[in-house]
Amino acid sequence: MTMHSAQYDDDKLHEECGIFGVFNHPDASALTALGLHALQHRGQEATGVVSFDGSDFHIHRAIGLVSETLNQTHVIERLKGKSAIGHNRYATTGEGALRNVQPLYADFDFGGFAVAHNGNLTNAQTIRNALVQAGALFHSTSDTEAVIQLMARAVGPVEKRFTESLKQIRGAYSMIALMDDQLIAVRDPNGVRPLILGELHGAKIVTSETCALDIIGATFIRDLDPGEMIIINQNGMISSRPFKPAPSKFCIFEYVYFARPDSILETKPVYSARKAIGRELAKEAPVEADLVCPVPDSGVPAAMGYAEAAGLPFELGIIRNHYVGRTFIQPTDNIRHLGVKLKHNANRAMIEGKRVVLVDDSIVRGTTSRKIVDMVRAAGAAEVHMRISSPPTAHSCYYGIDTPEQKELLAHTHNLDEMKEFIGVDSLAYVSLDGLYRALGEAKRNNEQSQYCDACFSGDYAIELTDQNPMPKSTSRSKILRSRENNKLAEQR
Questions:
Q1: Cα gap 451→445, rounded to integer Å
Q2: Which residue, 148, 187, 329, 448, shows the most beta carbons closer than 10 Å to its own?
Q3: How far apart are CA 33 and CA 37, in angstroms?
Q4: CATH number of the CATH domain containing 206
Protein backbone atom coordinates (compact mmCIF):
# COMPACT_ATOMS: atom_id res chain seq x y z
CA MET A 1 0.00 0.00 0.00
CA THR A 2 1.31 3.44 -0.90
CA MET A 3 1.07 6.10 1.78
CA HIS A 4 1.83 9.77 1.26
CA SER A 5 3.86 11.54 3.89
CA ALA A 6 0.91 13.83 4.59
CA GLN A 7 -0.81 10.87 6.23
CA TYR A 8 1.80 10.99 8.93
CA ASP A 9 0.98 14.58 9.78
CA ASP A 10 -2.57 15.41 10.75
CA ASP A 11 -1.60 18.56 12.62
CA LYS A 12 -1.23 21.06 9.80
CA LEU A 13 -3.81 23.06 7.92
CA HIS A 14 -3.72 21.60 4.46
CA GLU A 15 -3.28 23.76 1.42
CA GLU A 16 -6.19 24.68 -0.76
CA CYS A 17 -5.44 24.21 -4.44
CA GLY A 18 -3.21 25.70 -7.11
CA ILE A 19 -4.25 26.81 -10.59
CA PHE A 20 -2.28 27.72 -13.69
CA GLY A 21 -3.34 28.79 -17.18
CA VAL A 22 -1.61 29.67 -20.46
CA PHE A 23 -3.11 31.32 -23.52
CA ASN A 24 -1.39 31.34 -26.90
CA HIS A 25 1.95 29.63 -26.38
CA PRO A 26 3.17 26.65 -28.44
CA ASP A 27 4.35 24.85 -25.29
CA ALA A 28 1.22 25.59 -23.27
CA SER A 29 0.86 22.16 -21.66
CA ALA A 30 4.55 21.81 -20.80
CA LEU A 31 4.50 25.28 -19.22
CA THR A 32 1.37 24.34 -17.30
CA ALA A 33 3.04 21.20 -15.96
CA LEU A 34 6.03 23.27 -14.81
CA GLY A 35 3.74 25.83 -13.21
CA LEU A 36 1.84 23.11 -11.36
CA HIS A 37 5.15 21.72 -10.15
CA ALA A 38 5.92 25.11 -8.59
CA LEU A 39 2.46 25.09 -6.99
CA GLN A 40 2.74 21.55 -5.62
CA HIS A 41 2.65 22.87 -2.04
CA ARG A 42 -0.93 24.00 -2.59
CA GLY A 43 -2.23 20.50 -3.27
CA GLN A 44 -0.64 17.06 -3.32
CA GLU A 45 -3.65 14.83 -3.84
CA ALA A 46 -4.18 15.02 -7.59
CA THR A 47 -3.41 17.05 -10.67
CA GLY A 48 -4.99 17.69 -14.05
CA VAL A 49 -4.48 19.58 -17.31
CA VAL A 50 -6.90 20.47 -20.11
CA SER A 51 -5.55 21.85 -23.39
CA PHE A 52 -7.10 23.11 -26.62
CA ASP A 53 -5.46 22.73 -30.06
CA GLY A 54 -7.83 24.88 -32.13
CA SER A 55 -10.34 22.12 -32.79
CA ASP A 56 -10.25 19.61 -29.92
CA PHE A 57 -9.81 19.59 -26.16
CA HIS A 58 -7.35 17.17 -24.55
CA ILE A 59 -7.60 16.09 -20.94
CA HIS A 60 -5.25 14.36 -18.51
CA ARG A 61 -6.23 13.95 -14.86
CA ALA A 62 -4.66 11.66 -12.31
CA ILE A 63 -4.27 10.98 -8.60
CA GLY A 64 -0.80 11.83 -7.31
CA LEU A 65 1.92 14.45 -7.47
CA VAL A 66 2.84 16.40 -10.59
CA SER A 67 6.16 14.55 -10.80
CA GLU A 68 4.24 11.26 -10.85
CA THR A 69 1.42 12.19 -13.23
CA LEU A 70 2.88 14.69 -15.73
CA ASN A 71 6.51 13.57 -15.89
CA GLN A 72 6.34 11.50 -19.05
CA THR A 73 6.91 12.97 -22.50
CA HIS A 74 3.99 11.14 -24.08
CA VAL A 75 1.57 12.68 -21.57
CA ILE A 76 2.57 16.22 -22.51
CA GLU A 77 2.64 15.37 -26.21
CA ARG A 78 -1.00 14.25 -26.03
CA LEU A 79 -1.97 17.59 -24.46
CA LYS A 80 -1.75 19.48 -27.73
CA GLY A 81 -2.51 23.12 -28.32
CA LYS A 82 -1.49 26.67 -27.56
CA SER A 83 -3.81 27.05 -24.59
CA ALA A 84 -4.07 25.03 -21.41
CA ILE A 85 -5.21 25.22 -17.80
CA GLY A 86 -4.11 23.04 -14.90
CA HIS A 87 -4.97 22.34 -11.29
CA ASN A 88 -3.36 20.83 -8.21
CA ARG A 89 -5.92 19.47 -5.81
CA TYR A 90 -6.23 19.10 -2.14
CA ALA A 91 -9.78 18.08 -1.38
CA THR A 92 -11.57 20.71 0.71
CA THR A 93 -14.94 19.55 -0.59
CA GLY A 94 -15.73 16.33 -2.37
CA GLU A 95 -14.12 12.93 -2.02
CA GLY A 96 -10.68 12.19 -3.33
CA ALA A 97 -11.94 10.33 -6.39
CA LEU A 98 -10.73 10.80 -9.96
CA ARG A 99 -14.11 12.24 -10.93
CA ASN A 100 -13.39 15.20 -8.66
CA VAL A 101 -9.97 15.96 -10.12
CA GLN A 102 -9.91 19.29 -11.90
CA PRO A 103 -10.07 20.95 -14.34
CA LEU A 104 -13.68 19.86 -14.77
CA TYR A 105 -14.83 19.69 -18.39
CA ALA A 106 -18.22 19.90 -20.08
CA ASP A 107 -19.54 20.15 -23.63
CA PHE A 108 -22.01 22.98 -24.11
CA ASP A 109 -23.91 24.21 -27.14
CA PHE A 110 -21.21 26.87 -27.58
CA GLY A 111 -18.40 24.26 -27.43
CA GLY A 112 -16.11 22.85 -24.78
CA PHE A 113 -15.66 24.44 -21.38
CA ALA A 114 -13.02 23.56 -18.76
CA VAL A 115 -12.78 25.19 -15.34
CA ALA A 116 -10.29 25.04 -12.47
CA HIS A 117 -10.99 26.51 -9.06
CA ASN A 118 -8.98 27.45 -5.97
CA GLY A 119 -11.15 28.10 -2.95
CA ASN A 120 -14.45 26.91 -1.56
CA LEU A 121 -18.05 27.77 -2.34
CA THR A 122 -20.12 28.27 0.79
CA ASN A 123 -23.49 27.72 -0.88
CA ALA A 124 -22.53 24.90 -3.27
CA GLN A 125 -24.52 22.26 -1.41
CA THR A 126 -27.59 24.48 -1.28
CA ILE A 127 -27.34 25.08 -5.03
CA ARG A 128 -26.74 21.39 -5.63
CA ASN A 129 -29.82 20.38 -3.65
CA ALA A 130 -31.96 22.83 -5.58
CA LEU A 131 -30.64 21.78 -8.97
CA VAL A 132 -31.00 18.07 -8.22
CA GLN A 133 -34.62 18.67 -7.27
CA ALA A 134 -35.00 20.49 -10.58
CA GLY A 135 -33.65 17.46 -12.47
CA ALA A 136 -29.90 18.13 -12.72
CA LEU A 137 -27.49 15.21 -12.82
CA PHE A 138 -24.17 15.84 -11.05
CA HIS A 139 -21.11 13.84 -12.10
CA SER A 140 -18.85 14.74 -9.19
CA THR A 141 -19.04 15.78 -5.56
CA SER A 142 -16.81 18.82 -6.14
CA ASP A 143 -18.31 22.22 -5.34
CA THR A 144 -16.87 23.50 -8.63
CA GLU A 145 -19.44 21.54 -10.61
CA ALA A 146 -22.14 23.87 -9.30
CA VAL A 147 -20.76 26.52 -11.68
CA ILE A 148 -21.00 24.20 -14.68
CA GLN A 149 -24.54 23.15 -13.77
CA LEU A 150 -25.65 26.77 -13.40
CA MET A 151 -24.10 27.60 -16.77
CA ALA A 152 -26.02 24.75 -18.37
CA ARG A 153 -29.24 26.47 -17.32
CA ALA A 154 -28.22 29.99 -18.29
CA VAL A 155 -28.69 31.58 -21.71
CA GLY A 156 -26.72 33.98 -23.87
CA PRO A 157 -23.04 34.26 -24.78
CA VAL A 158 -20.60 32.21 -22.78
CA GLU A 159 -19.15 35.19 -20.91
CA LYS A 160 -22.63 36.24 -19.80
CA ARG A 161 -23.53 32.69 -18.76
CA PHE A 162 -20.34 32.36 -16.75
CA THR A 163 -20.84 35.73 -15.07
CA GLU A 164 -24.47 35.09 -14.22
CA SER A 165 -23.56 31.71 -12.76
CA LEU A 166 -20.85 33.24 -10.61
CA LYS A 167 -23.31 35.83 -9.31
CA GLN A 168 -25.33 32.99 -7.79
CA ILE A 169 -22.48 31.46 -5.85
CA ARG A 170 -20.96 32.57 -2.58
CA GLY A 171 -17.58 31.87 -1.10
CA ALA A 172 -13.91 32.31 -1.84
CA TYR A 173 -12.73 31.50 -5.32
CA SER A 174 -10.14 32.18 -7.94
CA MET A 175 -11.12 30.48 -11.19
CA ILE A 176 -9.73 30.01 -14.65
CA ALA A 177 -11.87 28.73 -17.50
CA LEU A 178 -10.79 27.60 -20.97
CA MET A 179 -13.08 27.74 -24.01
CA ASP A 180 -12.58 27.28 -27.74
CA ASP A 181 -11.17 30.72 -28.35
CA GLN A 182 -10.48 32.33 -25.00
CA LEU A 183 -9.39 32.00 -21.40
CA ILE A 184 -11.31 33.66 -18.57
CA ALA A 185 -9.88 34.33 -15.10
CA VAL A 186 -11.86 35.69 -12.17
CA ARG A 187 -11.51 36.42 -8.45
CA ASP A 188 -14.37 36.51 -5.98
CA PRO A 189 -15.60 39.98 -4.91
CA ASN A 190 -13.66 39.81 -1.62
CA GLY A 191 -10.46 38.56 -3.25
CA VAL A 192 -9.87 35.89 -0.59
CA ARG A 193 -7.73 33.62 -2.74
CA PRO A 194 -4.78 34.90 -4.82
CA LEU A 195 -4.68 35.16 -8.61
CA ILE A 196 -1.72 36.49 -10.59
CA LEU A 197 -1.37 37.70 -14.18
CA GLY A 198 1.92 37.26 -16.04
CA GLU A 199 3.33 37.18 -19.56
CA LEU A 200 5.81 35.03 -21.49
CA HIS A 201 6.81 35.99 -25.04
CA GLY A 202 3.41 37.56 -25.63
CA ALA A 203 1.46 34.67 -24.08
CA LYS A 204 -0.68 35.49 -21.05
CA ILE A 205 -0.23 33.43 -17.88
CA VAL A 206 -2.67 33.24 -14.97
CA THR A 207 -1.70 31.47 -11.77
CA SER A 208 -2.07 31.29 -8.00
CA GLU A 209 1.44 32.52 -7.07
CA THR A 210 4.37 34.37 -8.58
CA CYS A 211 6.69 31.41 -7.94
CA ALA A 212 4.89 29.64 -10.81
CA LEU A 213 5.83 32.53 -13.11
CA ASP A 214 9.45 32.31 -12.00
CA ILE A 215 9.83 28.64 -12.88
CA ILE A 216 8.97 29.30 -16.55
CA GLY A 217 10.73 32.65 -16.80
CA ALA A 218 7.53 34.64 -17.17
CA THR A 219 7.17 38.31 -16.28
CA PHE A 220 4.86 39.37 -13.48
CA ILE A 221 2.26 41.90 -14.61
CA ARG A 222 -0.06 42.32 -11.62
CA ASP A 223 -2.47 40.74 -9.16
CA LEU A 224 -6.04 40.53 -10.34
CA ASP A 225 -8.22 42.79 -8.24
CA PRO A 226 -10.99 41.42 -6.01
CA GLY A 227 -14.10 40.90 -8.14
CA GLU A 228 -12.16 41.34 -11.38
CA MET A 229 -12.74 39.19 -14.45
CA ILE A 230 -10.33 39.17 -17.37
CA ILE A 231 -11.09 37.69 -20.79
CA ILE A 232 -8.04 36.76 -22.85
CA ASN A 233 -8.36 35.99 -26.55
CA GLN A 234 -6.57 36.58 -29.85
CA ASN A 235 -7.64 40.22 -29.79
CA GLY A 236 -5.97 40.90 -26.45
CA MET A 237 -7.34 41.16 -22.93
CA ILE A 238 -10.47 42.76 -21.55
CA SER A 239 -10.92 43.50 -17.84
CA SER A 240 -14.29 43.97 -16.17
CA ARG A 241 -15.76 44.05 -12.67
CA PRO A 242 -19.14 42.40 -13.00
CA PHE A 243 -19.86 42.00 -9.28
CA LYS A 244 -21.09 44.37 -6.63
CA PRO A 245 -18.05 45.88 -4.86
CA ALA A 246 -17.14 44.26 -1.55
CA PRO A 247 -14.45 44.80 1.09
CA SER A 248 -11.09 43.21 0.28
CA LYS A 249 -10.54 40.10 2.42
CA PHE A 250 -7.33 38.49 1.23
CA CYS A 251 -6.51 35.38 3.27
CA ILE A 252 -3.99 36.42 5.92
CA PHE A 253 -2.85 32.82 6.36
CA GLU A 254 -1.25 32.94 2.91
CA TYR A 255 1.46 35.07 4.54
CA VAL A 256 1.72 32.85 7.60
CA TYR A 257 1.96 29.44 5.97
CA PHE A 258 0.27 28.60 2.69
CA ALA A 259 2.16 30.47 0.02
CA ARG A 260 5.69 29.57 -0.96
CA PRO A 261 8.15 31.93 0.76
CA ASP A 262 9.62 33.03 -2.58
CA SER A 263 6.23 34.26 -3.84
CA ILE A 264 5.00 37.85 -3.81
CA LEU A 265 1.30 38.22 -3.09
CA GLU A 266 -0.65 41.47 -3.14
CA THR A 267 2.72 43.30 -3.51
CA LYS A 268 4.10 41.75 -0.30
CA PRO A 269 7.06 39.31 -0.43
CA VAL A 270 5.95 36.31 1.60
CA TYR A 271 9.43 35.62 2.99
CA SER A 272 9.80 39.18 4.27
CA ALA A 273 6.32 39.06 5.80
CA ARG A 274 7.15 35.89 7.73
CA LYS A 275 10.39 37.34 9.07
CA ALA A 276 8.48 40.46 10.14
CA ILE A 277 5.93 38.30 11.96
CA GLY A 278 8.80 36.58 13.79
CA ARG A 279 10.26 39.94 14.83
CA GLU A 280 6.87 41.07 16.11
CA LEU A 281 6.51 37.80 18.02
CA ALA A 282 9.88 38.35 19.70
CA LYS A 283 8.77 41.80 20.84
CA GLU A 284 5.49 40.49 22.21
CA ALA A 285 6.75 37.26 23.77
CA PRO A 286 10.43 37.45 24.77
CA VAL A 287 11.99 34.70 26.85
CA GLU A 288 15.42 34.02 28.34
CA ALA A 289 16.92 31.35 26.15
CA ASP A 290 20.13 30.19 24.49
CA LEU A 291 18.99 29.73 20.89
CA VAL A 292 16.07 29.85 18.49
CA CYS A 293 15.13 26.80 16.42
CA PRO A 294 12.49 26.61 13.69
CA VAL A 295 10.14 23.71 13.23
CA PRO A 296 11.12 23.10 9.60
CA ASP A 297 10.38 24.07 6.99
CA SER A 298 7.45 26.41 7.45
CA GLY A 299 8.74 27.90 10.70
CA VAL A 300 12.14 28.94 9.30
CA PRO A 301 11.56 32.59 8.20
CA ALA A 302 9.61 33.47 11.36
CA ALA A 303 12.32 31.87 13.51
CA MET A 304 14.96 33.93 11.70
CA GLY A 305 12.99 37.09 12.44
CA TYR A 306 12.50 36.08 16.06
CA ALA A 307 16.21 35.38 16.55
CA GLU A 308 17.15 38.66 14.89
CA ALA A 309 14.85 40.73 17.13
CA ALA A 310 15.71 38.78 20.29
CA GLY A 311 19.46 38.88 19.70
CA LEU A 312 19.70 35.09 20.00
CA PRO A 313 21.54 32.58 17.81
CA PHE A 314 19.48 30.95 15.07
CA GLU A 315 20.23 27.24 14.82
CA LEU A 316 18.77 24.23 13.05
CA GLY A 317 17.94 22.28 16.18
CA ILE A 318 15.57 20.08 14.19
CA ILE A 319 16.54 18.57 10.85
CA ARG A 320 13.86 17.72 8.31
CA ASN A 321 14.09 14.67 6.08
CA HIS A 322 13.09 15.97 2.64
CA TYR A 323 13.00 12.50 1.15
CA VAL A 324 10.14 10.91 3.03
CA GLY A 325 7.92 11.18 -0.05
CA ARG A 326 5.83 8.09 -0.45
CA THR A 327 6.51 4.92 1.44
CA PHE A 328 5.30 1.39 0.96
CA ILE A 329 4.45 0.77 4.59
CA GLN A 330 1.14 -0.26 6.02
CA PRO A 331 -0.24 2.67 8.06
CA THR A 332 -0.42 0.87 11.39
CA ASP A 333 -0.76 2.77 14.64
CA ASN A 334 2.93 2.20 15.39
CA ILE A 335 3.97 3.66 12.03
CA ARG A 336 1.72 6.66 12.49
CA HIS A 337 3.34 7.19 15.86
CA LEU A 338 6.72 7.30 14.15
CA GLY A 339 5.50 9.81 11.60
CA VAL A 340 7.15 12.85 13.19
CA LYS A 341 10.53 11.09 13.39
CA LEU A 342 10.26 10.10 9.75
CA LYS A 343 9.98 13.79 8.86
CA HIS A 344 12.00 15.44 11.66
CA ASN A 345 14.91 14.55 13.88
CA ALA A 346 16.46 16.51 16.74
CA ASN A 347 19.96 17.85 16.20
CA ARG A 348 21.27 16.77 19.61
CA ALA A 349 24.66 18.46 19.30
CA MET A 350 22.98 21.86 19.01
CA ILE A 351 20.28 21.62 21.66
CA GLU A 352 21.60 19.39 24.44
CA GLY A 353 21.71 21.33 27.69
CA LYS A 354 20.29 24.46 26.00
CA ARG A 355 17.22 26.60 26.61
CA VAL A 356 15.48 26.32 23.26
CA VAL A 357 12.86 28.55 21.62
CA LEU A 358 10.90 26.51 19.07
CA VAL A 359 9.16 28.64 16.44
CA ASP A 360 6.32 27.22 14.35
CA ASP A 361 3.67 28.77 12.15
CA SER A 362 0.57 27.31 13.82
CA ILE A 363 -0.88 24.69 16.13
CA VAL A 364 -3.94 22.85 14.91
CA ARG A 365 -4.69 19.75 16.97
CA GLY A 366 -1.46 19.98 18.93
CA THR A 367 -0.52 16.33 18.45
CA THR A 368 2.52 16.96 16.24
CA SER A 369 3.69 19.87 18.40
CA ARG A 370 3.63 17.60 21.45
CA LYS A 371 5.67 14.92 19.65
CA ILE A 372 8.24 17.48 18.50
CA VAL A 373 8.58 18.88 22.01
CA ASP A 374 9.04 15.35 23.39
CA MET A 375 11.71 14.72 20.76
CA VAL A 376 13.59 17.92 21.64
CA ARG A 377 13.46 17.13 25.36
CA ALA A 378 14.67 13.59 24.70
CA ALA A 379 17.66 15.13 22.88
CA GLY A 380 18.64 16.87 26.12
CA ALA A 381 17.13 20.36 25.88
CA ALA A 382 17.16 22.02 29.31
CA GLU A 383 14.05 24.09 28.55
CA VAL A 384 11.63 24.20 25.64
CA HIS A 385 9.68 27.37 24.87
CA MET A 386 7.28 27.43 21.94
CA ARG A 387 6.42 30.55 19.96
CA ILE A 388 3.76 30.53 17.25
CA SER A 389 3.82 33.01 14.35
CA SER A 390 0.04 33.20 14.07
CA PRO A 391 -2.76 33.77 16.59
CA PRO A 392 -4.53 30.69 18.00
CA THR A 393 -6.42 28.77 15.30
CA ALA A 394 -9.73 28.51 17.12
CA HIS A 395 -12.21 28.45 14.23
CA SER A 396 -12.72 26.34 11.12
CA CYS A 397 -12.13 27.74 7.66
CA TYR A 398 -14.90 27.51 5.06
CA TYR A 399 -13.08 29.38 2.31
CA GLY A 400 -10.88 26.74 0.74
CA ILE A 401 -8.63 25.47 3.54
CA ASP A 402 -9.02 22.00 4.95
CA THR A 403 -9.36 22.52 8.69
CA PRO A 404 -10.65 20.09 11.27
CA GLU A 405 -14.01 20.60 12.91
CA GLN A 406 -13.95 23.29 15.56
CA LYS A 407 -14.10 20.77 18.38
CA GLU A 408 -10.82 19.24 17.14
CA LEU A 409 -8.91 22.54 17.22
CA LEU A 410 -6.74 22.72 20.31
CA ALA A 411 -7.19 26.49 20.69
CA HIS A 412 -10.97 26.12 20.58
CA THR A 413 -11.14 23.62 23.42
CA HIS A 414 -8.18 24.73 25.59
CA ASN A 415 -6.99 28.01 27.08
CA LEU A 416 -3.33 29.02 26.85
CA ASP A 417 -2.28 27.30 30.07
CA GLU A 418 -4.08 24.12 29.08
CA MET A 419 -2.43 24.17 25.65
CA LYS A 420 0.97 24.68 27.32
CA GLU A 421 0.38 21.63 29.50
CA PHE A 422 -0.92 19.54 26.60
CA ILE A 423 2.10 20.27 24.42
CA GLY A 424 4.52 19.92 27.34
CA VAL A 425 6.48 23.18 26.99
CA ASP A 426 7.91 25.46 29.62
CA SER A 427 6.14 28.41 28.01
CA LEU A 428 3.84 29.01 25.06
CA ALA A 429 2.96 32.24 23.28
CA TYR A 430 1.28 33.25 20.03
CA VAL A 431 1.64 36.45 18.08
CA SER A 432 -1.36 38.67 18.75
CA LEU A 433 -3.87 39.43 16.03
CA ASP A 434 -2.86 43.10 16.11
CA GLY A 435 0.79 42.02 16.05
CA LEU A 436 0.16 39.97 12.92
CA TYR A 437 -1.41 42.99 11.26
CA ARG A 438 1.49 45.22 12.33
CA ALA A 439 3.93 42.79 10.76
CA LEU A 440 2.01 43.17 7.50
CA GLY A 441 2.28 46.94 7.56
CA GLU A 442 -0.98 47.88 9.28
CA ALA A 443 -1.20 49.96 12.46
CA LYS A 444 -3.50 47.30 13.91
CA ARG A 445 -6.51 45.22 12.98
CA ASN A 446 -9.54 47.28 12.09
CA ASN A 447 -12.16 45.56 14.21
CA GLU A 448 -14.99 47.32 12.40
CA GLN A 449 -13.85 46.05 8.98
CA SER A 450 -10.79 43.82 9.07
CA GLN A 451 -8.24 44.37 6.29
CA TYR A 452 -7.79 40.61 5.72
CA CYS A 453 -9.81 37.44 6.10
CA ASP A 454 -8.72 36.15 9.51
CA ALA A 455 -11.79 34.06 10.35
CA CYS A 456 -9.71 31.06 11.47
CA PHE A 457 -8.36 33.28 14.27
CA SER A 458 -11.19 35.71 14.96
CA GLY A 459 -14.32 33.79 13.99
CA ASP A 460 -15.28 36.82 11.87
CA TYR A 461 -16.69 35.24 8.70
CA ALA A 462 -17.03 37.94 6.09
CA ILE A 463 -18.77 35.75 3.50
CA GLU A 464 -22.08 34.14 4.35
CA LEU A 465 -21.92 30.45 5.28
CA THR A 466 -25.09 29.35 3.54
CA ASP A 467 -24.39 25.62 3.70
CA GLN A 468 -23.64 25.84 7.41
CA ASN A 469 -27.02 27.54 7.96
CA PRO A 470 -28.96 26.45 4.90
CA MET A 471 -32.25 27.89 3.75
CA PRO A 472 -35.20 25.52 3.49
CA LYS A 473 -34.80 23.47 0.34
CA SER A 474 -37.99 24.84 -1.16
CA THR A 475 -36.72 28.41 -0.67
CA SER A 476 -33.29 27.80 -2.14
CA ARG A 477 -34.75 25.91 -5.09
CA SER A 478 -37.24 28.62 -5.91
CA LYS A 479 -34.50 31.27 -5.72
CA ILE A 480 -32.40 29.44 -8.28
CA LEU A 481 -35.36 28.73 -10.51
CA ARG A 482 -36.32 32.42 -10.40
CA SER A 483 -32.78 33.30 -11.39
CA ARG A 484 -33.03 30.96 -14.38
CA GLU A 485 -36.33 32.58 -15.44
CA ASN A 486 -34.88 36.08 -15.03
CA ASN A 487 -31.94 35.12 -17.26
CA LYS A 488 -34.32 33.88 -19.95
CA LEU A 489 -36.47 37.02 -19.76
CA ALA A 490 -33.40 39.25 -19.99
CA GLU A 491 -32.20 37.35 -23.04
CA GLN A 492 -35.61 37.68 -24.70
CA ARG A 493 -35.58 41.43 -24.09
A1: 7
A2: 187
A3: 6
A4: 3.60.20.10
Decide: 464 and 188 in contact? Cβ < 8 Å: no
Q: Which of 246, 279, 294 is the last residue of a domain?
A: 246
Kindly indicate the confidence band of residue 320, based on its pLDDT and cuts at 50, 70 and 90. confident
Q: Are residue 188 and residue 239 in the same domain, yes or no?
A: yes
Q: H or E stretch including 367?
A: helix 367-378
Q: Which positions are annotated as active-site residues?
A: 17
Cβ neighbours for 7, distance < 8 A, ≥ 6 positions apart: 331, 336, 339
| Nearest-5° Cα angle at 168, 166 to 170 | 80
CB 254 within 8 A of CB 267: no
Give pLDDT tens digits for 384-443: 999 999 999 999 999 987 777 899 999 999 999 999 999 999 999 999 999 999 999 999
Residues 226 and 283 reside in one and the same domain? no
Half-sphere exposure of 117 (CA within 13 A, CB side): 28
Euclidean distance between CA atoms 430 and 361, whole angstroms:
9
CB atoms within 10 A of CB 135: 7
Q: What is the reported pTM? A: 0.89
**C-alpha dist (Å) from residue 273 to 41, 279, 298, 312, 429:** 18, 10, 13, 20, 19
* 464 assigned to some structural domain: no
Distance CA 5, CA 323 (A): 10
- Three-state DSSP state, 434: helix
- The one-letter code for the residue type at 60 is H
Does 230 share its domain with 377? no
Contacts of 71 (CB under 8 A, 6+ apart): none
Q: Give the Cα separation of 209 and 192 in Å (integer).
A: 13
Round to whole Å and give the CA distance between 317 and 375: 11
Same-domain pairing of 226 and 77? yes
Please tell me the number of Cα atoms within 13 Å of 128 on its side-chain side. 18
